[in-house]
């Protein structure tokens, strides 16, 4: 916490929220970095979004590309286990759910539409624990929770996204 406070100017008990621009406008993403600190721990959340926020002169470091190395510089270990939530949306021409959504059932004498399914996933090489798939109009939405080891200094979101995308194929089928 001392090093983090010295580097950022944040004090014990502070909360923060920042949108981090990209160094590479063709990267296609930006990052939201927020968190809070207490005597016991520093909690933070790093969220990647698929829209570009271009770096300007008034955007100090870290950037969307360097945030993991920045955070890692305050962690005693070079790698750490992280809980990751990834959500993907694709049109039904590109993805189909392995469940025929929505489906209808009768409950209490009334027809009810089930538009999503929650899944506990079998052990897999991606570290995916559970998933959720739903369909909204013509859009298939797939979410997955994973436990993965993050190597701070060499972290590349593009590489991680490949694993996240593969993990949803347990319950979503890619058509193109």
Please work out how many helical segments DSSP would assign: 3
Helix content: 10-25%
Mean pLDDT: 90
End-to-end gap? 47 Å
Order of helices and strands: HEEEHEEEEEEEHE
Major β-sheet annotation: 4 strands, antiparallel
Q: Which band does the percent of strand residues land in?
A: 35-45%
| Structural class by helix and strand composition | mainly beta
* Biggest sheet: strand arrangement: 4-10-9-8
- Regions with pLDDT < 50 over 5+ consecutive residues? none
The count of β-strands is 11
Quaternary organization: single chain
Give the overall shape: elongated
Quick tags:
single chain; 176 residues; mainly beta; 2 domains; four-stranded antiparallel β-sheet; 3 helices; 11 strands; 44% strand
Description:
By secondary structure, this protein is mostly beta strands. It has two domains: 1-76, no CATH class; 79-176, no CATH class. The chain is built from three helices and eleven strands, in the order αβββαβββββββαβ. It has helices spanning 2-8, 67-72, 157-168; strands at residues 15-20, 30-37, 42-49, 79-91, 95-97, 103-107, 110-114, 116-120, 128-136, 139-151, 172-174. The strands form four sheets. A four-stranded antiparallel beta sheet has the order 4-10-9-8, covered by helices on one side. It has a three-stranded antiparallel beta sheet with strand order 1-2-3, with no helix packed on it. Strands 5-11 form a two-stranded antiparallel ribbon. Strand 6 and strand 7 (110-114) form a beta hairpin. The longest helix has 12 residues, at 157-168. The radius of gyration is 19 Å and the shape is elongated. The N and C termini lie far apart (47 Å).
